[in-house]
Amino acid sequence: MTKRMALSCALLLTLSLTVHAHGLPETGNEPTEIKLCDFAPEHDLRIPVDSKLAGGISREEYDRVIDRVEALYTKIVAARGATLQINRKWTSDEVNASATRSGKTWIVNAYGGLARYPSITPDGELMVLCHEMGHHMGGFPRYSGFGSAWASDEGQSDYFATMKCFRRIIENDDNEAILATMEVPVDVSRGCQLGFVSAKDIAICKRSAMTGKVLAQVLYELGRRRGARSAEPANPPAFDTPSQAQVSATSHGHPLAQCRLDTYFAGAICGVSGLVDFGGTEGVTGACSQENRDPFGFRPRCWYKPASGNWL
């Protein structure tokens, strides 16, 4: 994928030739696939099924994660007059995921190479698929190129992932028991206690933030590879080192890993309900926002510029 394609997420989005049956595994006879809206920026890593690098999650865990996304979103997408199709590309060596559309079919491609990345967890895979659902359902801001007006941009898809998708899918899990196996940073605990009151909601917030950290580290490592399109700095992403960058206009492409961690964390701690959709043409509805002078949980300035004159 060229830089221009990765940045615009355009042109081929409405020309997809993917015609897999919904929910079916690969058969080896699939037609040529045209896809954009990748989770990770362009890089050179591939992890085949039999690779010595293979780690991550099992095929059974991978399928369970996809089942959970389908269980929530199949009916939601159908209510919007479309069909959700998640392609289970377990044998693919791509360390990525992608989204596209073909008519009224909303497509998410789950590549096995990413599931086999050594540090990917079931929660990490789930949040990646939430990011791809965010391209379809994340609202404003969106790409604006030919054929891409339907697609929420990369930062917004990350914000959707923690705030609208991941928290809804895990809401009835025993999140406090899951957190007992993690070392949750003080910054995460403090942020989640600011955003929520109940122990249940605080636990969901913490698990969401910690999963965002897993993905940010993966993105950082991929971005440090030779030939990677992103230019990750020397220091890895951390909760206590938020990005100091401030864009002059909203960026639609992939932010750096620290900025993406900041976005995952913001979505996790925002107290607006996951049931409230984001606005389609403005950044206030369904979100925490600097436009509304919310003190935290808003989209980070490292990729998003609030509406003029209203931020703190």
What is the 3D shape? globular
Number of helices: 9
Can you give the helix content as a percent range? 25-40%
Q: Calculate Rg over CA atoms.
A: 18 Å
How far from one another are the termini?
38 Å
Q: What is the N-to-C order of secondary-structure elements (H for helix, E for strand)?
A: HHEEEHHHHHHH
User: Kindly state the mean pLDDT as a whole number?
Assistant: 89
Strand order within the widest beta sheet: 1-3-2
| Strand element count | 3
Helix and strand content put the structural class at mainly alpha
Report the β-strand fraction as a percent range.
5-15%
Low confidence ranges: 1-8, 10-22
- Summarize the biggest pleated sheet: 3 strands, mixed
Would you mind describing this structure in some detail?
This protein has 312 residues and is mainly α. It has nine helices and three strands; from the N terminus they run ααβββααααααα. Strands 1-3-2 form a three-stranded mixed sheet. The longest helix is centred in the C-terminal third of the chain and has 25 residues, at 199-223. It is globular, with a radius of gyration of 18 Å. Mean pLDDT is 89; it is low at 1-8 and 10-22.
Question: Any key phrases for this structure?
Answer:
38% helix, globular, three-stranded mixed sheet, mainly alpha, 9 helices, 312 residues
Brief rundown of the structure:
The chain is mostly helical.
Lay out the secondary structure.
Blueprint: H1 3-8, H2 59-79, E1 83-89, E2 97-102, E3 105-111, H3 112-115, H4 122-137, H5 154-170, H6 175-179, H7 186-195, H8 199-223, H9 257-269
